[in-house]
Specification:
180 residues; mainly beta; nine-stranded antiparallel β-sheet; two-stranded antiparallel ribbon
């Protein structure tokens, strides 16, 4: 379970894009016990490249402080992303994103590097009360050092494909919250 609160500021000095600044913090739980507290900052930019094309870039840093006994819960997490978005005829949208995440920790099996690429398609019109989008992606998660009782030679690399469909009921909201 993860509880988070944050503040986001959008700044648009011109018509061709905007900056996004955010700070956040919160806590995660493992079972019923607090696992770690975290605080993060991030900055991003969305830049219009043409009538139907935009570029998004950004980075975020999160510091995690362990709350449980046993140590090894502290971590520094740095992430960055870049993406291109295209507006399609009929109101649809196609996006391609590349993401990188680096976790540095003294904890066993917590230090890793991850690369992900994903494509997202958002339909141009609602299906009933829902706005529908689809995502397909590939991820590589690399642990230079990995332990199973003893160190595993060469570490561990997890490669995976993922996908999903999201329905957002934008017509149904309460105090700015929209169910997905």
């Amino acid at each position: 379970l993860r509880a988070q609160i944050g503040l986001t500021h959008l700044w648009a000095p011109g018509k061709d894009g905007y900056w996004r600044f955010e700070v956040n913090g919160g806590r995660t739980w493992y079972g019923r016990s607090p696992f770690y507290d975290f605080a993060g900052v991030g900055v991003g930019r969305v830049q219009k490249l043409g009538e139907k094309l935009s570029l998004s870039i950004g980075t975020q840093l999160e510091e995690q402080k362990g709350r449980s006994s046993g140590g090894g819960r502290d971590a520094s997490v740095w992430s960055a992303f870049a993406g291109l978005g295209w507006s399609l005829p009929g109101g649809g949208r196609l996006r391609a994103d590349l993401l990188y995440r680096d976790v540095d920790s003294d904890g066993v099996n917590r230090t890793s590097r991850q690369w992900s690429a994903q494509v997202n398609y958002a339909m141009g019109r609602a299906v009933g009360p829902a706005e529908i989008s689809f995502t397909l992606g590939r991820s590589t998660l690399d642990y230079d050092e990995y332990w199973v009782i003893t160190p595993v030679p060469g570490g561990r690399v997890d490669e995976s494909w993922f996908g999903g469909a999201t329905a957002s009921f934008t017509g149904w909201s309460y105090m700015g919250f929209v169910p997905e």
